[in-house]
Amino acid sequence: MKKNENKITNGLLQLAVLFAVLLAAVPLRAQQQEAQQSYSFSLQEAIQHAQQYNRSVINSGRDVEAAYKRKWETIAGGLPQISASGYYQNNFELQKQIIPAEFFGGPPGTFTEIAFGTKHTADANATLNQLIFDGTYIVGLKAAKTYLDFYKTSKIKTDIEIREQVINAYGNVLLTQENIDILNKNKQTLQKNLFEAEQMFKNGLGEEEDAEQIAITLASVNSSLNNSERLRNITLDMLKVLLGIDLKDSLQLTDDLEALTNANLDMTITGAEFNVENNIDYRLGVNNTEQKYLLMQQERSKALPTLSTNLTFGYNAFNDDFAFTQREQRWLNYSYLGVSLNVPIFSSFARSARTQQAKIELEKAKTELTELEQNLKLQYERAKSNYEYSVEEYMTSKNSLRLAERIEDKQQIKFREGLSTSFEFSEAQRQLYTAQQNYLQSMVDVINAKAALEKLTAR
Fold this sequence. Notes:
8 strands, elongated, 459 residues, Outer membrane efflux proteins (OEP), single chain, two-stranded parallel sheet
């Protein structure tokens, strides 16, 4: 009885421990599930999400915010500036002066030491400074606006680049998934063919080489399948990074590769006229030229006089005892108005040298802008040609795939009936697999080529 009771007691204890462990694991599991999020995006939804949550896009937006603050910093430099100051001085040993003693009734020719001042001194004042005229400030205001425009345009450029990157990454994920599906289908067909070939060999109706040839092809397909499954995880993680979501989150793509390709078959895009002035890189080049021009203007403006004024109000107090906090302490007020005029006269041609350097930089910027214009026109023609070629390749590979499928079907029938060799059958299979890969790649090429063309024309 005691043994049975001990067994029951031990069992109950074990159940209690197990129950406690399960209770502890439930909130942990709930936290893990809560931390992990699930996403499901079409291509357009993925682009919209990336343009809001991509980390480069976020930092680009912060650059714009910082540029706004810098613009206000420049504006504030010409507005009234108010500052206050105060100091306390303890003259524990007053400085002494020597004066003739006869001033105090002493013998002529002798001198007496005398200290001027009090042991404690305090002062408090407030000063208002106002810039009246400064040529560099006027140019600085224009430069601040140009500086802000640069970061606004850079933000647009980042959005355009992220859009293209998301399209490419999205297409790569679909490509690997489609490739896995095709390889799995090929694998099933090959496994069936291998089984039939082995049975035919066992029954004396076929050659062992036939089964071995199929086994080699099956091994190659298995290797490609394993590699594609690894690539799927990598490409999916790359897309997650672009979307600004955590790698541990779940992501599903709702678009189909073929449907997405058909949606990007738009030859009218190649007939549109390319306006280089709308290109984002050209706009940045124009902004760079404006900045160089303003730098030259700033160097020129340094030859102009500057005028400013300041107004100061203050109080000071003196005492041999520290009594500044007492009501009886006497505070003496003072105030003054000052005007400062600075007129540059001669700098040993240093200002002229700096102005000439800025002018040279401006000429370089103009030359670079001309070169950029030509390169962009060339890039557009190349991108248009690539898109047209990708569409042609897609149509060709689609037809080639249909032919390869028919050839493989015929060779498979011939092989089963003993009318063709295993080599001929394997060659037809390899031709089919190559056509499948070319077809998948051609669809992605269409999507990517159109994205590259749209990037050049995006505003």
